[in-house]
């Protein structure tokens, strides 16, 4: 008989994360940990600041103010540096958008990576909590069973005493 124990087959099907959580459960170790990736690089901090400012109402307000000022100045001065179709303004706005978009994407990619770590950590903590709850239920069931057996023994003794009293 070379059949494996059903529990071993179940353990073999677990993912690496589940095996790690099960190991922490067996060894009574905490699974919660600090998942911050450490200090941010200058580029990451810059990308976060650009993304934060570039996605704000302040940026929209300043951009509209700058565009309006550009157009008003070019309309009022005698020899405009960027006459009506505002080709230079379009070039400046295109350059800002071309530089701002990848920086914002860098920040979003870093945040998405952090969110994935957060989600994995939450999954591990929830799985460990679930195992702890199951263990507590098992302990409570065992205690209830022990108390039930004690109660049944006590009831048998009481019935024996009652039977003796009724015979007398």
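Q: What amino acid sequence fits the structure above?
A:
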């Amino acid at each position: 008989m070379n059949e494996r124990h059903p529990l071993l087959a179940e353990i073999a099907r677990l993912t690496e994360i589940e095996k790690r959580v099960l190991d922490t459960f067996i060894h009574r170790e905490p699974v919660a940990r600090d998942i911050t990736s450490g200090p941010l690089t200058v580029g990451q901090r810059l990308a976060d600041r650009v993304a934060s400012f570039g996605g704000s109402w302040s940026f929209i307000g300043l951009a509209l103010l700058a565009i309006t000022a550009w157009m008003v100045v070019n309309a009022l001065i005698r020899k405009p540096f960027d006459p009506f179709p505002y080709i230079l303004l379009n070039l400046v706005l295109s350059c800002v958008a071309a530089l701002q978009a990848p920086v914002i994407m860098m920040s979003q990619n870093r945040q998405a990576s952090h969110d994935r770590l957060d989600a994995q950590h939450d999954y591990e903590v929830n799985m460990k909590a679930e195992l702890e709850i199951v263990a507590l239920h098992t302990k409570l069931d065992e205690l209830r069973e022990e108390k039930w057996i004690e109660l049944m023994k006590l009831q048998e003794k009481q019935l024996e005493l009652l039977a003796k009293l009724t015979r007398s």
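Q: And what stands out in the fold?
A: The radius of gyration is 35 Å.
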